[in-house]
Amino acid sequence: MNKIIKNILIGFSAIRSSFTRVFLTSIGLTIGIFTVSIVTAAVSSVDREFAKSIQSIGNDKIYVGRMPWSFEFDWWNYRNRPEIKEESLDYINQYSEYVTQSSMKQNYWTKATYENKASWLQMNGVYPNYNDMMTGTKVVNGRFFSENEWKLQRRVAIIGGSVGEGFFDGEDPIGKKIRLGGVSFEVIGELEKTGSFTPTGSLDQVIIMPTTTFQRILTRWTWNEFVLQIDPNNREKAKEEVRMIMRVARKLKPDEEDNFAVNSADAFTKQFNQMKIAIAGMGLLVTSISLIVSGIGIMNVMFVSVRERTKEIGLRKAMGATNSDILTQFLSEAIAIAIIGGTMGILLIRTTLYFIGSAIANIDINGMGSAIDLQMDLLLTFYTFMVCVFLGLIAGMVPARTAAKLNPIDALRHE
Amino acid sequence: MTKSRREIIGIKSVSKIYNLGDTIVKALDNVSLSINENDYISIMGPSGSGKSTLMNIIGCLDVPTKGTYKFNNEKISDMNDNQLANIRNEKIGFVFQTFNLLPKLNSIQNVEVPLVYSSLGRAERSLKAKKALKIVGLEDRMSHKPNELSGGQRQRVAIARALVNEPSIILADEPTGNLDSKSGTEILNFFDSLHKAGNTLIIVTHEDSVAKRAKRRIEIFDGKITLDE
Fold first, then answer.
1. Is A101 a member of any domain?
2. Between chains, do B161 and A319 touch, taking CB under 8 Å as contact?
């Protein structure tokens, strides 16, 4: 044991004498470790963001629209589908067993202005009961519009969590008049800020108003959706039922394909998981390539080291070093190079995350994330360290064995 | 004076044959040799005579193709690599023509190299190394690196390294070959004193002046011992 430690120390001391070379070689691994960490961090943060978004889509909702929530967008097929008409919702309300509540949701992007400020925002025209169906956010300031305001086509608006910041500089937005598409609206409510996105955009960049007002003031040409409240346990049955009702409502013949789509968060999850696998797969590929390249770099430098010190190996053997002594010496040299590279990689990623983190900290509302991150980081650091040791071992094995097997007589004669 | 001395090395009809494809080279051809404690031997011979091969076999760096080699009554010819390494570490001190000091290490560290492969602790190693450097008269050059020492001093560090494990024999291969005559004489005087102190010395050389100092002279030619007196 004592002897192994002595050989490891000899190996480490070789690092000091050729530091430039070792440093340059280990940079390869630094980059490798950096990529691994970035990919891991990216996947886990996308994951976290996604969980938030799923929450705002809602597990207990299904959405009927023209297009499915899919990343494989067959635009040319979907664009010719007829718009989702408000009348179809009556069929659903009348015939569906599973849908307990429903609302129309019309989407339209337009320019919103307040005094000299302007911004493109997503207008949502909804029914009054949409207030009860919102998930992931709620009115935290002011109120939602009432049944009467809906009937009377009032120009009232509820603004998303980050709209107010841009327009009112921290002043209370309630009662302020903003212009949407050139028409003045009164802000009556403000939503809680979520920081999440849905298939139709960010929840924080919306302006909600009655569908009636929406159609009268803004446009009839909109992107329509039905938001349907269901029991999540019956989601599949509810989706199938709604699909059949929609087919009837849209007067589709039995041999015709659906010209609408029934969406729910789980479909989005499936799509998203595929994307996540793709990201992780690419990451793994890039990572393993950079690890292999840096491993080859280490191996190369070790071959040079063995060649350069052939005479030393011969001498050490003449002085009584066994094959395993020499093997240990060169293996620990390779592992040391790997550890140096890995440590630099960990330090680099730590600094990078620190700066990104302090930039993000202002946006992060619930401080939950940071505590979890730290724990993950320590575990990750340990794994990274083990990967380095393993890589050094693999990369150093062949050169170290070459060194250990040298014949002392030939090695001593080597110039 | 005629106290019978213990035999350290017993070589019986040893041959070393190299098979180089279509030619077979007999580097050593049926050589027998006995070396006793406190012998002072010179081995001479032209290059290609087989003296290096004999030296390598005596030094346990190589094993014979045929014949038996006993070191302190242990059969070397049957040993594996690790056992040979152990014998080299504990029983043999090498001195080379080109000194073979490790350039990055200072004198003490160079002398400590054989001790690293024994089971000694750090303090004990450094103590032994200092003692060996004192014997060769370099106590004031302990932390110098080889490039800060003269040729003669370097060879003395190498001798200290050979002595540090108190070996049974000291094997010197052309120890004065790379030295000027003054330092060479110094080294040879030092070998004489090592002999007087009871050490067993084998010096491979082609210089008559070196061979004359030895008490026993062996000449080798074409793989055979031609003279042993």
1. no
2. yes
Query: Rounded CA gap, A255 and A261, in Å?
Result: 17
Question: What is the C-alpha separation between B89 and A319, in angstroms, rounded?
Answer: 5
Chain centroid, CA A235 distance in Å: 26
pLDDT of residue A358: 65
Size of chain A in residues: 415
Establish whether this prediction's ipTM goes over 0.85: yes
**For residue range B152-177, what is the model confidence (pLDDT) as tens digits?**
999 999 999 999 988 999 999 999 88
Is A359 at the interface with chain B, CB within 8 A? Answer: no
Q: Please, which residues have CB within 8 angstroms of residue A388's CB and are 6 or more apart in sequence?
A: A29, A33, A335, A338, A339, A341, A342, A343
- Is the predicted pLDDT of residue A322 greater than 90, yes or no? yes
Q: Which residues of A348-361 are buried (b: 16+ CB within 10 A; e: fewer)?
A: ebeeebeeeeeeee
Q: What domain range includes position A274?
A: 2-54+270-413
Asked if the structure places residue A315 within a domain, the reply is yes
Give me the residues of B, 116-145, that contact A with CB < 8 A: 116-119, 121
A118 with A11, same domain? no
Domains in chain B: boundaries:
39-63+88-228
Q: Which CATH number fits domain B39-63+88-228: 3.40.50.300, 2.40.30.170, 3.40.309.10, 3.20.20.10?
A: 3.40.50.300
Element (H, E) at A65: strand A61-65
Is B100 at the interface with chain A, CB within 8 A?
Answer: yes
Whether residue A131 is found in the same domain as residue A21: no
What are the pLDDT digits (tens) for A372-413? Answer: 454 456 777 788 888 889 999 999 999 999 999 999 998 988
Residue B71, both tokens: 């070191």
Question: Any bridge partners for residue B228, and if so which?
Answer: B218
Residue A387: CB partners within 8 Å, gap ≥ 6? Answer: A33, A36, A291, A342
Same domain as A305, residue A185? no
Alpha-carbon span B9 to A169, nearest angstrom: 98
Give the closest-approach CA distance of B75 to chain A in angstroms.
18
The DSSP letter of residue B1 is -
Interchain CB distance below 8 Å, A409 and B88: no
Indicate if A136 and A50 belong to the same structural domain.
no
Distance in angstroms (rounded) separating the CA atoms of residues B145 and B42:
31
Q: What's the pLDDT tens digit per position in A91-130?
A: 888 888 888 999 999 888 888 898 888 888 889 999 999 9
